[in-house]
Amino acid sequence: MAEPILKLSGVKADIDQYHILHGVDLVVPKGELTVLLGRNGAGKSTTLRTIMGLTTLTGGTVTYQGQDITRWPTPKIARAGIAFVPESMGIFGLLTVRENLVLAAVSGPMDEARLQWIFDLFPPLKKFWDKPAGTLSGGQKQMLAIARAVIEPRDLLLVDEPTKGLAPAIINDLADAFDQLKEQQVSILLVEQNFNFSRRLGQTVAVMNDGAVVHAGTMAELAENEELQQDLLGLGLGAHQ
Amino acid sequence: MTEETTAMPLSETGSGSERERRSPIEWLRDQREHRAHLFLLAIMLLASIAVIDFRTWLVLTISGVAMGAVLFLMASGMTLTFGLMSVLNLAHGAFISLGAFAGGTVLAFWLDGFASSPSFLTNLVAIIPALLFAAFIAGVVGLVFEKLVIKPVYGDHLKQILVTVGGSIILMQLIEVIWGPNEIPVTRPEALQGAFLVPEALPLIGGIVLEKYRLVAVVLGLAIYAGMLWIIDRTRIGILIRAGVESREMVEIQGYRIHLLFLGVFIAGSALAGLGGVMWGMYKELLTPHMGDEMMISVIVVIILGGLGSIRGCFYGALLVGLINLYIGFVEPRLAAVATVGLMVGVLMWRPQGLIPVIKV
Amino acid sequence: MLSRILSEDFPRSKTLTALLLVIVVSLALGPFLFDGIRAFTTLGMICVFIMVVAAYDLMLGYTHIVSFAHTMFFGIGAYGVAMAVDGMGNSFGAVLVGIIGALAVSFVLSLLLGLLSLRVKAIFFALVTLAVAFAFLSLVTQLYNITGGEDGMRVRVPRELGPAFRPFENSLPGIDVPTLLKGLLTQPWNIGQVWQEATFEVRFNGRNVMYYVLVAMATGVFLFLLRLVNSPFGRVLQAIRENEFRAEALGYRTVVYRTAVVIVSALVATLAGAGFALINRYVNPENTLNFELMVFILLMCVIGGMGTLYGAIVGSTLFILAQNYLQDLLGWVGQYTAGIPLVENLLGEDHWLLWFGVLFVLSVYFFPAGVVGQLRIWALQRRNRKSPPPSGPEAEPVAQT
């Protein structure tokens, strides 16, 4: 198995006075797309946020490329090469599409070739270049959110439920985008409820329940094992689509 | 009501043919919706010109704009600080006073030779350092203040109110310790004293007296407003500020250490307050430790009126407050303060978020 | 019985209880324990401000409503009485008319403010109250003819409350405590002489009567507020304070409760203002409507301890004592630092407010619970050390337990 780019050991985290994560062990292999599955409330989003340093971590460690980033502040984690696309997308609605991307290009001016690649992936972004991002449709916002995450090369992408509420055609576009990213050897940790989407893209899978990872393995395993799917389906998977 | 559409007039993106089809009443209603600030400004100008004779109105309007310019300087820092950092700095008035005293010291004691010369250029040798020194001192104190007083209480509005009120007391007492408790008179630089007399020969406006200092204030205020707008709209920092106003967390996720941005904005805001203070000090020609606090009411009205976090809103709010002060001050001076507050309450009833809302408070 | 009077809201700390007893006894027997005009004024002010600050604590401490209009209501009460007496002569009837009129005005204004909080959120509300209070101050200062403008108005109190009235034929005995203490410390062997120097004659007059009216008012108001915050109404306030959203979800119309709090607080402040006018016999914008006064009220409430009501007693006492006597202390210190340029200035008696400000800021950071809150926390910790409670998820000790 490929060497892990990200490793969580016994991570516990709180939000306000609620204990959400009760000891998460997770390994994200380098250069692969890992899907984090689980029903609502299992703690998937919180896991991503904890990796980014946005919650109160009360135990365990987070290791990224061999470095212990457990106590790092969020901006430092981002600059170390981790891009995060939250569930709410986090688009700056009052800024134009262009300004959103300018901001995301932390190191300086945007690379022309890269920008062109993004336009090829997501044509609407070029069309609405100077329009306020708040006027984009849901799917277009999601495109922008992902574009922001990849405008500069990143080693690890954390993506939270990108397909939520999107039309099938757009979902296909997103899948293509992820395929291309995989070709570029970008490691991706994807939180998804859409099992088919996950099955198509994911190479590794981890299933969460009640704030901990209850199953980890390859997607191939899970995809072939009907019984295992039933077991985990019993946790509410495959509810969408 | 979608706040975004109020802030960004999307009707602009519509085609010209649409505009033709709308009736004047609809156009008015549209302006009232999307350009509330201009609408209100127009109403105020028109209403006052109806009751005051033109020549007086012109002088009052220019004076009102001048006051608005100085108010804008004082208020812009506070509105940005609140918009970006959600920090309510009730010690802002102390920074105004500080700037006034610092700049005043330069003018009255250190470079008074240059200030008393009748030549404008010679005066500038005193004025520019005074302005810079005022901004500098206020900015430095702002830096210290942010680190010592504000940073520990990010996110807790109640504590912020308490702590900045306390900080304000301390700062003002320190001003008294350093400069003494008495009022300090400061004479305006020679070239800025007095007024222009518009040539009699000109129609309508001939013979009107325009105070030189007020014109300078207007020019300076507009210049700084233009500068701020340029920074906010066209530079990367401006993008960062606007993004931070929308979502601090998201900016951090992008990889920016937003606290540095906060610090910069706070320092800039304090420096601007200091600048406003020295401008006000030069106008009143008298420095008192509480002068900043006296302006705070107007500053607060301005930022609430304009919409917390919006520079444009702050500018128009300042104009409106300056104008209403002058107009009501002419018609019934005793009610000037009441009218200002009344304007604020009225606008709040109509637009709870202010004229140009940027953030949802 | 004590439990019922205090609505089961006890001090919960031995030190606090002792402190409160000292304060209460000093106030109750004040005219007989402290000689001189300055002491009398101080005592009167403490009684007035206990009411003002307790009312403010109801808003700030129990409901987390920040308002800067409190002095406005105080001023309405003070000016109400002043103007009524000025226009109708110094009878009790006039005073009553003044009080009722002032209460009515305050009721309407506070109702409007409460409803305003419907439209705007917390921070806006605080700033708006500031602006409104300022507008009111400006109005009072400008309407010279009815309010005396900046010069203020003299309050001609009814004869029974004035210095000419003598309810008792003879003088009553009194012991001046400060003199007694000083004597005991400097010449403890000479008890007889010390006692003699300390005794003084209390010429009980109408002013003392007014003082005791004030004491009664303060006691009544305080116990009423204590009852209020410990009633079901008070519980809802705390719910709103902790989590307004949840309180709404539970079915409580928070706007109604918040408006009620603003109104009650305003009415109490008005009453206190009326009392102030009668004991001080002089009102002007500076001693009733000033923003500086508003800041002082805030200081008293926070330093005493927000959300405790007892904090109002402690905070008012500490602050007013400091205001009147700290200057002396600084002057005394000043003797030793005279000559050192900046230090001399910093410790100058004029700058007592500087040090109070520093104290205030430090207390917000390190003792956010205020004097009362902190004493209760320490008492709780002492009790817990003796019998440790079962571990729970609560990270912070809640002062109310």
TrEMBL record, chain B:
Location of region: Disordered: 1-23
GO cellular component, one term: plasma membrane
Listed GO MF terms: transmembrane transporter activity
Any one GO BP annotation for this protein: amino acid transport
Pfam families with a match to the protein in the record: BPD_transp_2 (PF02653)
Transmembrane segments: 36-52, 58-75, 87-111, 123-149, 161-179, 213-232, 260-283, 295-328, 335-352
Keyword Transport belongs to the record: yes
Subcellular location, principal: membrane
Membrane topology category: Multi-pass membrane protein
Alphabetized UniProt keyword annotations: Amino-acid transport, Cell membrane, Membrane, Transmembrane, Transmembrane helix, Transport
InterPro entries membership: ABC_transp_permease, BCAA_transport_permease
Subcellular compartments: Cell inner membrane
Statement: the UniProt record of this protein carries the keyword Nuclease: no
Family according to the record: Belongs to the binding-protein-dependent transport system permease family. LivHM subfamily.
Protein's recorded name: Amino acid/amide ABC transporter membrane protein 1, HAAT family (TC 3.A.1.4.-)
Protein source organism: Marinobacter segnicrescens
